[in-house]
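Record type: monomer structure entry
Structure origin: computed from sequence
Chain ID: A
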Amino acid sequence: YLLRLASLRLLAAQDVESASELLEAVDSILREQPDSGVFAVREELARVQAEIDALPKIDRSGVYLRLAALHEQVNRLVLLPVPEFDPDEVSVEEEYEDRLARRTRGERLLMRLERYVRVDFQRGKVITPLLDEAEMQRVRRTLQLTMEQAQWAALRGESEIYLASLAQAKNILQQFFELENPQVKAMQNQLSALAERQVDLDPPDLSAVQQDLAAYIQSRRSPADNGEADQ
């Protein structure tokens, strides 16, 4: 039972510490057996324990908490400025150019509108639209949801989803936030550092130990037990 429980801990939860303690309990029980037939089981068990000890230490809780701290900082990040169009707004340079070129009011209005509206015929080129305040709040919430997804992926040891979520969060930062702001830069650096943290394991298979243990238990069965089983 302890051996099956250790296998579940390793494969389902990737809980190395609990699995190692359970295997130590299994070895303690085997150590008390009087015959030498248990030697093969303990030998296979020792091999598995050595592989478990060699597994890297993963701090999923630490990764989860780091992402939770970043999640709280999202509402304080500086967004890209959202300009408001004013047809009468004109700089000194623009007024001087208007006079030299003798532009009409319609031409001047069109030129100033180009600072807010872009027309690009290059297909495939990604253009970031100008967003209003409500849309930017949705961007913040999307960034927070992406971090939440990375949190749960880290706890489950799903490295592909974890890395994809971090990459999506960095892309949102680059697309919609002021990259020169120190807080935005710091968050980008922390997301890059978290992407280097390992959240999954490749635990050893305990099936060989289970088979050896089953064979040993079968060999310990008395002839009387065999007769009862036949009946």
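Annotation 1: The mean pLDDT is 80.
Annotation 2: The first helix runs from residue 2 to 13.
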